[in-house]
Amino acid sequence: MLTTLVGVIVRTAPNTLSFDSHDTMPEIYGIKANVRKANEWVALSASRRTPNVLSVVDKQLHAFKRRTLAHVFYDQNMKHIEDRIIEKIKGFTDLLGSADDGLPVKEKNSWGSPTPMTNPCNWLSFDIISDLTYSQSFNMLKSPELRWVPEVYTSMSYRSMVCLIQPKIFECKLDRVLLARLYKEIISAGTWIYERTKTRQSLGVNPDKKDIFSILMNARDLKTGSEYKTKDLWIESILLLAAGADTTSATMSAAFFYLLHNQAALSHLTAEVRATFTSEDEIRMGPKMNSCRYLQACINETMRLVPAVPNLSPRRVQAGGITVGGEYIPEGVNIGTSLYTLMRNEHYFQKPNEFWPERWFVDPEAGVTPESLALAQKVFCPFGMGPRSCVGWKLAWLELNVTLARTLFLYDMRLPLGTDSFNKSTAARSDYDFQAWAIASGGGHRAQFRRRHDLQ
Fold first, then answer.
1. Can you give the pLDDT at residue 425?
2. Residues at the annotated binding site?
3. Mean pLDDT of the chain, nearest integer
4. Which side of the chain, N or C, has fewer Cβ within a 10 Å radius?
5. What are the respective helix, strand and coil percentages of the chain, to the nearest 5?
6. 99 vs 105, 106, 246, 256, 376, CA distance in Å?
């Protein structure tokens, strides 16, 4: 990483500065910071004229969009939708226990076929967010019909990152030429989502099974009169599928990778889950789940190493300039912090590139002091910071906790025999390989599952 070589501030583009310091995060992303979202963010919307909650530059319009979506993720609403989420997670764990023909593996002591973990993690996350958005799941866990969707979203993420890094490609519409094949796929997918949007809108508000569309269709800004028209609903639904599925599935896939490559952590976590819960149905959010501290440490460690949005999130300095880290930055400069570099910074984290859940517990013998733990907790910000932080973090936290706990409660898990790192020591094992587009995307690793011998 460049910050290791040249220091805290790196000029990553002619008009962009990256700050690899937690102390500067509030100065850049805080609510009082004299900045706004950079103009380049428009590339992250499917429309050049209609922004989504992520790409919108106007602060007042963003506040309205964010307030609207925040209603979905209030604690009370999360309790109402938890059963719908758990239903999909059960489909995920059932799939892990199936043979290639989709039927359950009958012999309790037999290992299933190697499973490429990126796929079921993607299918689960898309099934959940599509159900919560439209009240109609894509049903990817059970049917191959729509399994092309995650691949197209990876293309969208790649195209967005290219346009964000080089705005002229977007401004001059060169992405239509330079990324012609991907652009054609993206347009086709956008049209398909538009048709789903119109179909869902025509059904109106569902009083029995509220979804995100119901909330968006009823939303109105009393100050400005802003509301969601068909195009707004379409633009937001494209983002919702990406933010609600791609981000969580990337973290989930990475969590399985790190556990599979760290046998001690896998054994510790498996023992904790099986000692805490006595049945699959018990495994849901609540006091018992909250007591699984090692589970939380493993998830935190995964999000530290593989933040769902790893790259710099630029902000444009406004008139009057801004002081960041003691340095004056004039109007018009883009500034930001990469969560990937920040949370692998050796000044904040011991063994910064290692999966080490124990860093989240005080243990002087292991070198974890109250002071080092407090510093790590202060710097840890996988969902961002300030008024633009991730509004759906509670949904991601629920999915990750319940999915990992249920999987390890039901199954033993291992790397397929013959995998390169199957017999390697911890220090020799590779890091999770992912692409840092607009949203992290990676995987390729496989796992084998065997139903617990002591479960009836």
1. 43
2. 390
3. 91
4. C
5. 50, 10, 40
6. 6, 9, 26, 19, 42
170 phi and psi angles, rounded to 5 deg:
-75, -45
Q: Which amino acid is located at 40 in the chain? A: E
Look at the block and give the residue holding tokens 């801004």.
322
Residue-wise pLDDT tens digits, 137-183: 999 999 999 999 999 999 998 999 899 888 999 999 999 999 999 99
Whether the CB-CB separation of 402 and 289 falls below 8 Å is answered with yes
Residue 105 and residue 102: Cα distance in Å, rounded? Answer: 9
From residue 46, alpha-carbon distances to 127, 131, 156, 204, 409 in Å are: 22, 21, 9, 24, 41
Rounded distance between C-alpha atoms, residue 26 and residue 428, angstroms: 37
Q: Which residues are annotated as a binding site for heme?
A: 390
Query: SS3 of 414, please?
Result: strand
**Tokens 């291992």 belong to which residue?**
414
In angstroms, rounded to a whole number, what is the distance separating the alpha carbons of residues 246 and 136? 18
Give strand pairing partners of 227.
Answer: 220
- 412: which 2 tokens? 């033993």
Q: What is the number of other CB atoms lying within 10 angstroms of the CB of residue 98?
A: 15
Rounded Cα gap, residues 139 and 372, in angstroms:
44
Q: Is 171 helix (H, G, I), strand (E, B) or coil?
A: helix
Residue 363 φ then ψ, to 5°: -155, 90
CB-based contacts of 409, cutoff 8 Å, min separation 6: 273, 274, 277, 280, 283, 452
Distances (CA, A) of 410 to 95, 123, 277, 455: 12, 20, 11, 8
**Residues whose CB is less than 8 angstroms from the CB of residue 61 and which lie 6 or more positions away in sequence, other chains included:** 51, 224, 226
- Give how far Cα 436 sits from Cα of 158, 182, 433, Å: 9, 17, 10
Q: How far apart are CA 445 and CA 453, in angstroms?
A: 25
